[in-house]
Design a protein that fits this description.
Subcellular location: Cell membrane
Helix content: over 70%
Strand order of the largest sheet: 1-2
CATH superfamily of the largest domain: MFS general substrate transporter like domains
Mean pLDDT: 87
Pfam families: MFS_1 (PF07690)
Distance between the termini: 36 Å
Protein name: MFS transporter
Radius of gyration: 21 Å
CATH class of the largest domain: Mainly Alpha
Number of helices: 17
Largest sheet: 2 strands, antiparallel
Structural class: mainly alpha
CATH topology of the largest domain: Growth Hormone, Chain: A
Oligomer: single chain
Main location: membrane
Strand content: under 5%
Keywords: Membrane, Transmembrane, Transmembrane helix
Amino acid sequence: MQTLVTPIIPHLPALLDTTAADSTWVLTSTLLAAAISTPISGRLGDMYGKRRIVLVLLIIMAGGSIVSALSNTLIPMIVGRVLQGVGLGVISLGISILRDVIHPKNLGGAVALVSATLGVGGAVGLPVAAVIAQNFDYHYLFWLALLLAVVAIVLVGTIVPVSTLRAGGRFDFVGAVGFAVGLVGILLAVSKGNEWGWTSPVTLSLLIGGIAVLLIWGAVELRMTDPLIDLRVAARRPVLLTNLASISVGFAFFITTAALPVLLEAPTTTGVGLGQSLLVSSLCLMPLGLIMFFLSPVAARLSNARGPRTSLILGGAIITAAFALAVWLHGAIWHVILISAIVGVGVGFAYAAMPTLIMRAVPPNETAAANGLNSVMRTLGSTVAATLVGVILSSHLVLDGGIGIPTTQAFQLVFAMGAGVALTGVIIGAFIPTRGTGFPGTASIPIQRA
């Protein structure tokens, strides 16, 4: 869902009869919807059953795919993409379900495997989407998304057991609205600031207003009996530091998505780009996701033997080394493949550790909401990364036939920034407590035995 429309981004203005600026909402709307949906669906999952909410979200995703598949203009396309974005709340819910149904001794491996599928989806989805976009009507992209959603609905409905663990209380509608308004304001300002102007009244109003709303929201949530997000739990040292480290991992991970395709597809005439097609570029980035997937058992064993904090720190250190290497090594296709592969190793270790660290620090009936907030932190990191990469690449250009191509210095600056942010995550991770806080991964549906 996240890479679905990437191959057709340059063609969206013509396909949807709109402007280039307005066509970017096809991407932005999905990002915003996912960021809002994730913590809210997590809370609903804790209250009414994670499996039930997963099925609801998948049905919404399927509906969004149908709307987009039948769309030829901008507004219905955005509506469909928003619905697809709402469905992305299944990611954190799916990981949280594992705590309910998997025996504690197998939980680390299961979490690592499911976390790794995030990379696999993008790595495999991008070249598949490129092939469809280049050879067929672009609407087939959304019919494919519908097929995947239907398959997921059938599999979840027939295999995943009904959730028995419930959190009490009432759903915090006021908190949900406040969180959504504040988060949308901040993410919109960050993602559109370069386009609208960082000092424009719209950008400043959204950024300042979003921060103000979240501050008020936090004060109200602390007084609520049944808050959307228990901020006292979120402020615990293990949860807070893991979420801060997650921002850095999400930031570093997205640099590969935002910068490496530009480097691969830029023309060779300036001596910077590698002149590859979208399909070849997609194949060059596949190692990142595939390595994440196949590395998951190793990451799980490391977490079990040395603790998830060790896995997180090691992952951040590997990402730091990869981007430090990329500063000087990015002039050939095999360089890009190597960097992508090394980043995949680091992200695989880090992604395997973060949900486990969160689940060790929160009670079982708050697992989904806490994982949802952690997912939002990764999204925030990715959004900031996309914005800063765009600013750097667009401000360091060399003209080629009237077209601006990013310079070598632009890519070096981007990779150095990625290394610095990843190193910051390593330092933060070093302060995460090594011991849990008394909330073991007890299965609420003990379908497995030790």
